[in-house]
Structure formats: structure tokens, C-alpha cells
Amino acid sequence: MPALRWSLFYGEALMLTHARVWAAAAPNSVLENIYGPTEMTVTWTEFRLPDRGEDWPRPANGTVPIGTPYPGQEHPATPPGPGAAVDRRRSR
Question: Which residues pair with 8 in a beta bridge?
């Protein structure tokens, strides 16, 4: 697929092994992993894979990072273990 210019992946975790196969099949395409809560039906973050495969991240779980929030957006993080993230600004 040499004519493909932009590839967006979202929904399930994108494994780096799958991203490498896609990059080989579409060598001229930008690869981005995007994320957004299903209820919003939009994406909230993005991670663009570098052009060179040797510059790709190497996380222990083998997935492509979900990236950083788009400008003007925030993304709360949930600490490991039970419980949900709490926005303490709203409880003041």
C-alpha cells in the first residue's frame, strides 16, 4: 500500500508487532495510535510513531503508547490498584 499516507489506529491496544507489519505494508504512511473514551465517540490523545522503526518505543507490555492529550484537553491518570482517578479540583 505505498500510496497510503496516513494510518489511524484506535479501539483496542495496538501491539508494536502489528504496527511493524503495517509499517512494512504501507511504508509511506504516518502511523498514529489514538485514544478516546467510547462514550465520547472522539479521540482524546494521540501518539505518532516515528518514521524510523528503530526509534519506536519499547514498552514492557509491547503496546504502542496512547500518547498525550490534544491541545486544550486534560487526561486524568488512574494510579495502579483499585479505585478511580479523582478530580480534586471539583470537590473544593
Answer: 32
pLDDT in tens, 29-87: 999 988 766 645 577 788 889 989 999 999 888 999 888 888 887 766 666 555 544 44
Residues 6+ apart with CB under 8 A from 48: 30, 31, 32, 67
Q: Name the one residue in this structure whose C-alpha cell is 504496527.
A: 19
pTM: predicted TM-score of the whole model, two decimal places? 0.50
